[in-house]
Design a protein that fits this description.
alpha/beta; Rossmann fold; 3 domains; four-stranded parallel β-sheet; 17 helices; 49% helix; elongated
Length: 500
């Protein structure tokens, strides 16, 4: 199946064909380093991390560039508030961003350019725009003339008049048109500035991405990504200034992820519903957050709530439990991880349920590729993963009734397939034993219990049962149940688990 992706330029899905053979150049707009990253940053980061992972998994050679904006009005103002230099502030929050991404399992881009490291590239690009009549200088500032660029508004599918009517544009008498945007800003006393042909100043926000993407990916490249909020004005302005400067198409496919809301409302510090990545990861495993972010198609709106993230944490725990049980079941070196659908060695006829289990495991990778080839549909892809987990659980129940080589081979193949697609999704990468032990420790810490305390109580209960002191034994069981600890008695002894 041919990979198809939704192109914001055309407003429809298109077959993906790289500009140069199997090499893909992708540029993603990164953070403005002035504060901790929030849930919206996490969604964009995970979406494009998976897109890059999948392209590489399918055999493409990918050059992934993602910038850091380290000079901007927000950075300057926040640095002034904190009494530090803009460089110190941006370095701090860039470091925090890297730590957040590492925790989320998001791979570093191949190139991570910063605006302040490319001032000369930016100046040269602005000079080209001025010389071609697309930009003009006023009092040390340089503005891009939207009226001089035919096709402004193509990306956001709006006319210049519609943009002006819907935008909150400050009246600036220096501009020839209200929608003209700054390429270079004249320096103000006490603010960082660089020398330029128009006097000391600093770059505008939009021009840095054009300069850096052209520097590392060429004048035309394959994919440009970012959140839907960047379509206008940021990406619209990038297209205008880049095409005006080079005379060539800028980007072949624009890919934008949808918005994130909190309990149905837009994230806002004033509403008190602004969640940082660190806040979420303080209570949930990073893979649970990734699982939540993949639960909707990347272009769809995504609403966050404690109930939903808790549900994803429970689902993740169950998958790891299944993987652990499956690995224990196929521990014998004699088991070959290939699927042999058919009658089981236990004499159990291949019922519809069993055949469905084999099918879910056997078809996982093919169905996964179909979903991902259809505009990176991670929600559908995860549905197939959950089906394969169900299939493994069905076969695990059969294998417990007696040695069944077919079941065990299929279980082993299912684990391998889940691990393989998990590498693309950034999931199920933790050692199962380490994951489950870590999760158990987290849950116990919330219950103010330790594993040793629980084992001591189970031992006391066993002694009471041996003496036929059922009242004490029942009291211990009830005490543990009150702490969400469920006991399971079997001929092999008593085990325990934490009730969700």
């Amino acid at each position: 199946m041919t990979l198809r992706l939704y192109n914001s330029f055309s407003g429809q899905k298109e077959d993906f064909k790289p500009l140069s053979g199997n090499h893909v150049g992708i540029y993603v707009c990164g953070i403005t380093a002035y504060d901790d990253c929030h849930l919206g940053h996490a969604r964009a980061a995970v979406v494009f991390d998976i897109i890059v992972r999948y392209l590489r998994h399918r055999g493409f050679k990918v050059t992934h560039v993602q910038n850091i904006t380290d000079i901007d009005d927000k950075i300057i103002n926040r640095a002034r508030e904190k009494g530090v230099s803009f460089k110190e502030l941006s370095e701090h929050y860039t470091g925090e961003f890297h730590r957040d991404m590492e925790a989320l399992g998001v791979a570093r881009p191949d190139v991570e350019p910063r605006a302040t490291g490319h001032i000369q590239d930016i100046i040269r690009l602005i000079e080209t725009l001025v010389s071609k009549g697309y930009a003009y200088a006023v009092e040390g500032n340089v503005f891009f003339s939207v009226e001089n660029f035919h096709g402004y508004g193509r990306l956001s599918h709006r006319s210049l008049e519609e943009m002006q009517a819907g935008a909150r544009v400050e009246i600036d008498p220096r501009k020839r048109h209200p929608m003209d945007f700054a390429l270079w800003k004249s320096g103000k006393p006490g603010e960082p500035a660089w020398e330029s042909p128009w006097g000391p100043g600093r770059p505008g926000w939009h021009i840095e991405c054009s300069a850096m993407s052209i520097r590392y990916l060429g004048e035309t490249f394959d994919i440009h990504g970012g959140g839907q909020d960047l379509i206008f004005p940021h990406h619209e302005n990038e297209v205008a200034q880049s095409v005006a400067a080079t005379g060539k198409p800028f980007v072949r496919y624009f890919v934008h992820n949808g918005f994130v809301t909190i309990n149905g409302e837009k994230m806002s510090k004033s509403l008190g519903n602004f969640l940082t990545i660190k806040e979420i990861l303080s209570g949930y495993h990073p893979e649970a957050l990734r699982l939540f972010l993949l639960s909707k198609h990347y272009r769809s709106p995504l609403d966050y709530s404690e109930d939903l993230i808790r549900e994803k944490q429970v689902s993740l725990d169950r998958i790891y439990v299944t993987l652990a049980e499956a690995l224990d079941a196929v521990a014998s070196p004699a088991i070959s991880p290939t699927i042999h659908p058919g009658a089981s060695a236990t004499g159990i006829s291949p019922s519809t349920e069993v055949e469905t289990a084999y099918s879910r495991i056997n078809n996982l990778k093919e169905l996964f590729y179909q979903a991902m080839d259809d505009d990176f549909n991670t929600a559908q892809a995860m549905g197939h993963v959950f089906d394969a987990v169900k299939g493994i659980n069905t076969l695990l129940q059969i294998s417990k009734k007696g040695p069944d080589q077919d079941c065990l081979a299929a279980i082993g193949a299912g684990v391998s397939a889940i691990r393989e697609v998990g590498q693309v999704l950034g999931l199920f990468s933790t050692d199962t034993k380490s994951y489950l032990e870590g999760r158990r420790a987290e849950k116990l810490s919330k219950l103010s219990l330790t594993a040793d305390q629980i084992r001591d109580l189970i031992h006391q209960r066993e002694e009471a049962r041996a003496k036929k002191d059922w009242a004490v034994a029942d009291a211990i069981r009830k005490k543990l149940a009150g702490a969400n600890i469920i006991l399971k008695d079997s001929p092999q002894g008593t085990t325990w688990e934490i009730k969700e």
